[in-house]
């Protein structure tokens, strides 16, 4: 069976805030470890991957080597559109073009132009169209796409513009891009979700959107930051009974026996209160973790009922996710991809 990493293009999207960039970086590490020349593409002015690898900030549109076999690039849609219009307009300076009424009119009259040009640049990376003059493109381009709605707009832009531009260079590139996006042998789509109702619902909507726009489906859903099931149902009942027993101890007045006429039992009550507070806190924490885990696994079951391949990524504990943590996620994905 062909792996998602065996394609030319792997699109990673999903609800915002689910860790798409982290998963894209982990997939890039995994692909490079398999000996495939890989580039991770971020969309927007900001490039976050170089700092994760201890490299200074990179300018938009510039390919940055992260490690052996792995690079990154950020594509700013506005900048990409200006560059494309400059090609069409000859030697018109970019700052003049960007401030011209023609440019503003074009971008307003052609919604989706930025998305199309961004996707054309992604396609060029698969073809060897980068700035370093490679004879063949990267073995794998991992697109860290925007959130679901915007990503579907980007992926649907070739079909929209293909119906308008039937001749010329943009028409040829659009057709080839559309073929790449629709080919199961050359492209794949992954959703990243947290195990919450909203994020899983968005993954289901992404599946429907891909089918409507490209006739494609999701290769898998990566469920990120999954908590483990720490307690079985009998264990949880026993933990709850400890809380009941602690409350019963306080209300019954049980405590250490009195040791003399000056001992009024206050110290014994304080000890009981302290034990009860500690037990109540522990029971509350255990119940909260158990309930959250239960709800998360209910969402996993919801995905599996729809016959999705689900790749579970455990929650990474720590103040900040570093390269070591991302590498651990890559190793986890390697066992499932």
Number of domains: 2
Could you name the CATH homologous superfamily of the largest domain?
A: P-loop containing nucleotide triphosphate hydrolases
Helix tally equals 12
How far is it from the N-terminal to the C-terminal residue, by CA? 10 Å
- At the first level of CATH, the class of the largest domain is Alpha Beta
What's the CATH topology label of the largest domain?
Rossmann fold
Q: What is the string of helix and strand elements?
A: EHEHEEHHHHEHHEHEHHEH
Q: What Rg, in angstroms, do the CA atoms define?
A: 27 Å
Strand runs, count? 8
Largest sheet: 8 strands, mixed
- The coarse overall form would be elongated
Uncertain segments are: none
> Strand sequence of the main sheet, in spatial order?
3-4-2-5-1-6-7-8
How much helicity do the residues have? 40-55%
Rounded average pLDDT: 84
Structural class: alpha/beta
Proportion of strand residues:
5-15%
> What would CATH call the architecture of the largest domain?
3-Layer(aba) Sandwich
Name the features.
Rossmann fold; eight-stranded mixed sheet; single chain; 2 domains; 8 strands; elongated; alpha/beta; 337 residues
Overall description:
This protein has 337 residues and is α/β, with parallel strands linked by helices. The chain has 2 domains: 246 residues, 3-Layer(aba) Sandwich (Rossmann fold); 62 residues. The chain has 12 helices and 8 strands. The protein has an 8-stranded mixed sheet, with helices on both faces. Helix 9 links the parallel strand 6 and strand 7. Helix 7 runs parallel beside helix 9. The longest helix is centred in the last third of the chain and has 40 residues. It is elongated.
